[in-house]
Specification:
The complex is a heterodimer of chains A (about 300) and B (about 350).
Chain A: H1 2-6, H2 12-18, H3 28-50, H4 61-68, H5 70-100, H6 108-116, H7 118-121, H8 123-134, H9 139-146, H10 159-183, H11 187-195, H12 200-228, H13 232-236, H14 247-257, H15 261-287
Chain B: E1 12-22, E2 25-36, E3 40-44, H1 51-59, E4 66-71, E5 74-75, H2 81-84, E6 87-89, H3 101-111, H4 116-129, H5 145-157, E7 163-167, H6 175-192, E8 195-200, H7 203-209, E9 212-217, E10 220-225, H8 227-232, H9 237-242, E11 247-257, E12 260-264, E13 270-275, E14 282-287, E15 293-295, E16 302-313, E17 316-323, E18 328-333, E19 342-346, E20 353-355
Parallel strand pairs in B: 3-8, 3-9, 6-7, 7-8, 13-20
Antiparallel strand pairs in B: 1-2, 1-4, 4-5, 9-10, 11-12, 11-14, 12-13, 14-20, 15-19, 16-17, 16-19, 17-18
C-alpha cells in the first residue's frame, strides 16, 4: 500500500515507548536484582533441597515424614491456631478504633503515637514486658490474687502468652492499614446516607463496611503472614516444646539443631504453602466484593 | 409530565438567628429566613460566605452553635439528619460507588423498610423522571457527570422529602451540560413542586432557577428578594457587584434630590443616577457593562473613553476602555469598536446606581 509507505515510519524508540518500554524501566533494576538474589534464588534452592532427603531415596520422603510424624504434623494446627485468631482479632479491633480516629480532634497525634509505638519495640522487648506483667508474680496476677483468686492465672509460657504477644506487635500494622483504607472513603457518602434516613448502624453496615471490606481482606492477609511466622515470642513467652511448637520452630530445630537442611526446607515450604492457601482463600472471597473507587464520585 | 412524586408540603420553615462557628471563626452570623412550602430559594454568594454552612445546618450535618430552626412551629435543629427526612444533592453527588443506579435511588426507601412492590414502583418512577431507564443497572463509575447528577437528584426526590437541599449541584459539569441540567432542575421543581433550597456562587444560575434569592457575604445576609428585585435593585455595592454591576466608578456627590443623586468624577464628568443609600461626600456609581450605549454627540450622562481591549463574543463585543482619569470601564456593545478608538458612552439615569 502506497499510503502507508509515504507515512514517516515511527522510530523504534517511539514504538517501544507506546508499549511502555522506555528508559524509566531501568528504575526496576535494583528491585528486580533484590528480589532475585534474596527471594527467588533462596526459595528455589530451598525447594529443590526439600526434594533431596538426607538419607536419599524417595524425593517426597521429607514431606511424607512431616505428615506421618504427629509431633511435626501438629505444628500446622498449632501455628494456625495462633495466627488466625491473632490476625482476626487485630483486624476487628482496628475497625472501631480507626473509625473513631478519622477526622480531626485534639490529641489525635498523641493517641496515634501510643497505638503505633509497639511497632518500634520489637518482639523481644514485648515478650519481656509480657513476662514481667503477666508472669506468676507480675502486676496482673498480684491484682488478680488481691481480687480473691485462689491461684495465679497462667498467662505466660503457654498459648495465651504468645497470642498476647502477637496481638501487641501485630495491632499497629493492622490499625495503620485500616485507618488508611477508612480515610480513603469519602465522608460525604455517609452524610448522603444519613440524609436518606440511614441510622448510624445502617450507614456502617450498608456504606462503610462494603467499601472497607476489600481493604480489611488485605489487612487480614498481611496480619496473618506476620503472625504465622511467629518465632521469638513462641520461644520466650510460649512453650516451644509443647503447645506453641510452631512451624518456624520446627523448621529451625530440624535444620540447625538436627542438621537436616533438606527436612528443614521441606517444613519451610509447607509453611509457605499453608500461608498461600489462607491468603488465596481470603483473596478469592475479596474478588466477590466491590473493589472500585471509594472517593464518592464513582 | 404526570408523576406521583410530590413533597409532603409544609407551610413554613423558619430559620431563627441560625449561627454556626468553627472555633473562633463565625461562618454564619445569625441568619433569619422564612421559607414557604413549594418555594425555590437560592443561597447566593462567593466561597466562604456561609452558604454551604447554612445548607449543612438545614440538613442536620452540622450542629448549630446558636439560634433555632422550626418546621411549622416544631423545632428540628436538634434532630440528626436521618430524622429530618430532607433530601440532599451533594456537590460531588456522593453516589454510593458499590451500588447500581437503581439501588442508589432505592437506598432511602429500603432504609425505611418500604415493601418490595412499592419500592420497585417508586424507583421505576424516579428512574423515568430523570430519564435514566437505559442506565438503571449500571454503576456510578460507568455514568457521565450529567447522568450521575440525575441519579443524585432522583435519589433525593424519590423519598418525596418536604425539603430538597442542593449544594452547587451543577458546578462539576461542563458549560453545555450545566445549562441543560439547570433547565431540568427547574422543570422538576415546576412539575413536582418540591420546596428547594439551592446553594450556588453563580448569580446567573440563581436568577434562572430561584423564586427568591438570598445573597450572603461573610456569613451575613445582604439581601433577600425575588430575582427581579435583587437584579434591578441591589441594596448595596456588594450585591450590585455580584449582580453584574462590573463598573464601580469612584465619584464625589454634588447634590441629592429625592431619589436621584448628581455626582462627578475627579476629572469633572457629571453623572446623574439613582440613590440607593444615604450619601455623604464620596460615593460609587455602579453601572452594568451592557447599559452603556455608544453615541456620537455629547449630552447628559455621557462619558468619554479610549478603547483598549476588544473581545469578540459573537453578537456583542466585550470592550475594556479607560476614562480620561485612568479608571477602567467595562462595556458590552453591538457597535464594532477597535483598540485606540475614542468613544462617547451614554447611560440612562435609572441605570446608574449610587452607593455610599
Amino acid at each position: 500500500m502506497t499510503a502507508t509507505l509515504e507515512q514517516p515510519k515511527a522510530s523504534v524508540r517511539h514504538r517501544l515507548a507506546e508499549k511502555g518500554v522506555d528508559r524509566v524501566l531501568w528504575l526496576l533494576v535494583p528491585g528486580a536484582v533484590f528480589v532475585i538474589l534474596l527471594f527467588v534464588y533462596p526459595f528455589l534452592y530451598g525447594l529443590q533441597l526439600s526434594f533431596q532427603p538426607k538419607g536419599g531415596g524417595n524425593p517426597f520422603q521429607n514431606y511424607i515424614t512431616f505428615f506421618s510424624d504427629e509431633y511435626l504434623a501438629e505444628t500446622v494446627w498449632i501455628t494456625l491456631r495462633l495466627g488466625l485468631p491473632a490476625a482476626l482479632f487485630n483486624v476487628l479491633a482496628s475497625i472501631p478504633i480507626a473509625f473513631r480516629m478519622r477526622g480531626r480532634f485534639r490529641g489525635k497525634r498523641a493517641l496515634t503515637t501510643l497505638l503505633v509505638i509497639p511497632i518500634t519495640l520489637g518482639t523481644v522487648l514485648t515478650a519481656e514486658g509480657l513476662l514481667a506483667f503477666f508472669g506468676p508474680t507480675g502486676w496482673f496476677n498480684r491484682i488478680w490474687l488481691a481480687l480473691g483468686a485462689d491461684e495465679p492465672a497462667k498467662l505466660t509460657h503457654n498459648y495465651w502468652g504468645v497470642l498476647f504477644s502477637l496481638i501487641i506487635t501485630g495491632f499497629p500494622f493492622a490499625f495503620l492499614l485500616t485507618l488508611s483504607y477508612l480515610s480513603g472513603i469519602d465522608p460525604t457518602l455517609e452524610q448522603a446516607a444519613a440524609t436518606l434516613g440511614a441510622s448510624r448502624r445502617q450507614r456502617f453496615r450498608t456504606i462503610t463496611m462494603p467499601l472497607l471490606a476489600p481493604g480489611l481482606a488485605v489487612t487480614f492477609c498481611l496480619s496473618f503472614v506476620l503472625a504465622f511466622s511467629v518465632f521469638p515470642s513462641a520461644v520466650m513467652v510460649g512453650n516451644p516444646a509443647g503447645e506453641t511448637h510452631v512451624m518456624s520452630i520446627a523448621a529451625y530445630e530440624t535444620a540447625l539443631r538436627d542438621n537436616d537442611f533438606a527436612m528443614g526446607s521441606a517444613i519451610a515450604m509447607l509453611m509457605a504453602l499453608v500461608m498461600l492457601i489462607v491468603i488465596g482463600v481470603v483473596l478469592i472471597w475479596r474478588t466477590t466484593l466491590y473493589r472500585g473507587a471509594t472517593g464518592g464520585k464513582g | 409530565m404526570t408523576s406521583h412524586i410530590s413533597g409532603q408540603r409544609f407551610a413554613e420553615l423558619h430559620l431563627d438567628h441560625v449561627q454556626r462557628a468553627f472555633g473562633d471563626t463565625v461562618a454564619l452570623k445569625g441568619m433569619d429566613l422564612t421559607i414557604k412550602g413549594g418555594e425555590f430559594v437560592a443561597l447566593l454568594g462567593p466561597s466562604g460566605c456561609g452558604k454551604s454552612t447554612a445548607l449543612n445546618c438545614l440538613a442536620g450535618l452540622l450542629p448549630l452553635t446558636g439560634g433555632r430552626i422550626t418546621l411549622d412551629g416544631k423545632r428540628i435543629d436538634d434532630l440528626p439528619p436521618e430524622k429530618r427526612g430532607f433530601g440532599m444533592v451533594f456537590q460531588n453527588y456522593a453516589l454510593f460507588p458499590h451500588m447500581s443506579v437503581r439501588r442508589n435511588i432505592g437506598f432511602g426507601l429500603s432504609m425505611r423498610k418500604t415493601p418490595k412492590a412499592e419500592l420497585k414502583r417508586r424507583v421505576d418512577e424516579a428512574v423515568r423522571l430523570v430519564q435514566l431507564e437505559e442506565h438503571q443497572h449500571k454503576f456510578p463509575a460507568q455514568l457521565s457527570g450529567g447522568q450521575q447528577q440525575r441519579v443524585a437528584i432522583a435519589r433525593a426526590i424519590v423519598l418525596e422529602p418536604p425539603l430538597v437541599l442542593m449544594d452547587e449541584p451543577l458546578s462539576n459539569l461542563d458549560a453545555a451540560l450545566r445549562l441543560e441540567m439547570r433547565t431540568e432542575i427547574r422543570r422538576l421543581h415546576q412539575s413536582l413542586g418540591l420546596t428547594t433550597v439551592y446553594v450556588t456562587h453563580d448569580q446567573e444560575e440563581a436568577l434562572a432557577l430561584a423564586d427568591r434569592l438570598v445573597v450572603l457575604r461573610l456569613g451575613e445576609v445582604q439581601q433577600v428578594g425575588s430575582p427581579e428585585e435583587v437584579y434591578a435593585h441591589p441594596v448595596n455595592q456588594y450585591v450590585a457587584g455580584f449582580m453584574g454591576y462590573r463598573n464601580m466608578i469612584p465619584v464625589d456627590v454634588t447634590s441629592q434630590e429625592g431619589e436621584h443623586a448628581t455626582v462627578h468624577t475627579d476629572d469633572g464628568i457629571k453623572l446623574v443616577g439613582v440613590k440607593r443609600e444615604e450619601l455623604t461626600g464620596q460615593a460609587v456609581a455602579a453601572v452594568r457593562p451592557e447599559d452603556f450605549t455608544v453615541v456620537s454627540e455629547v449630552g447628559e450622562n455621557t462619558l468619554e473613553a479610549v478603547v483598549e481591549i476588544v473581545e469578540y463574543h459573537g453578537r456583542e463585543q466585550a470592550v475594556e476602555a479607560r476614562l480620561r482619569n485612568g479608571s477602567p470601564l467595562h462595556i458590552r456593545t453591538n457597535s464594532r469598536l477597535a483598540p485606540g478608538d475614542t468613544i462617547r458612552l451614554k447611560v440612562p439615569v435609572e441605570r446608574v446606581l449610587v452607593f455610599s
